[in-house]
């Protein structure tokens, strides 16, 4: 994507966005919020207002949930064959691919990450996710079980997998399009109807996905979208017409969702925070480790749940590795993501900038040494830019080591005793992911087994595929996204007993 192409697309998209308010999708129709209110979504690289978006609230959520419940009993969806459901999902993937360049630029404008990365990661990941889950409707079913009832009885026992019902899907601002796909794709594949609540900071690609879903042939009411703030999300979680909630976001909000879902005991899956350790053994390939560790913390400006924000490097290799990571950070080109040479964009908002800056001040106060970054880039006085930041001489008790910053801040510690290393790596309320760097295959497997995390990468980091389950231990969440496990989240198992005697 050349500079001219990206900028030209951006200008065209901005003109289209300003020409009309962005509306809610309810029952297959684009409608204003009942209150008539709108809110602004802005470009975090410039502070420019991109669009006015419908400010949905509890009354709008109620209409969307009712539309979804109605769609569940509509033969157009409830009796759609598994093959036809697969075709709809494949058509949706094809339409995302058709509009890939526009979606990439739209995501860059609304989220801030460079358009080259939104194209390669967000959009491509969305296409792959829909195509992967398009294969499941024809393969996700029950089984016949060899039960042993009372003597002499002839019993046929079989199970079926049925859609859980209406799914409320709440997605974050850090990967707006792909996170929506992670939830929408398996929910539709399982036969659910959904109400999607995108983050208020980044609603635009979710709304475009809704347009493409209708074009792909998703029946009216099966896919609804409510844009708005936390009150809309809370109304969705509390609504008794919602059978299942899937949420990606902070651990604090995840706990609130658990409490709010108790009314009708709706099913809940949560993908929450993380404070992922990167563990480097003395025999590791430091060149490969340094490049991947830098990518693991600085990609998407550190606004990633799996960000490798805690570095544990063997003390015999610490200076060499940290110099290499600092060099990788210095080579990052910071700026507006519409430029093809930019690989490090702004934080999402002033609020997030203030949060990251506060943690940098805390780290310095607590005694860690600031080795790189820690401020706004001097040449960028607009937007929410923050330099890639590295702390050394950190200690296990420091807040920058224990708390999720959700920004481009790496805290480095050294180790010499393996048992103590594992204890430190596991000394966290989180357990989402971890990275291990070593050429000793025995050490790799033993350490991977000892680490309490949902995903462990060995000599790589942030490898994601829709076929492989993703989720966390401890306060990093409940359940797993991707793979068969995701289909199970959106379905119920029914056991049928037939007396053949």
From TrEMBL:
The keyword Mitochondrion does not apply. Keywords: Oxidoreductase. SUPFAM superfamilies: ALDH-like (SSF53720). It comes from the Bacteria. Residues 30-496 form the Aldehyde dehydrogenase domain. It holds the Pfam family Aldedh. InterPro entries: Ald_DH/histidinol_DH (IPR016161), Ald_DH_C (IPR016163), Ald_DH_CS_CYS (IPR016160), Ald_DH_CS_GLU (IPR029510), Ald_DH_N (IPR016162), Aldehyde_DH_dom (IPR015590). The active site is at 271. One of its GO terms (molecular function) is oxidoreductase activity, acting on the aldehyde or oxo group of donors, NAD or NADP as acceptor. Transmembrane segments: none annotated. The keyword Cytoplasm does not apply. Belongs to the aldehyde dehydrogenase family. This is Betaine-aldehyde dehydrogenase.
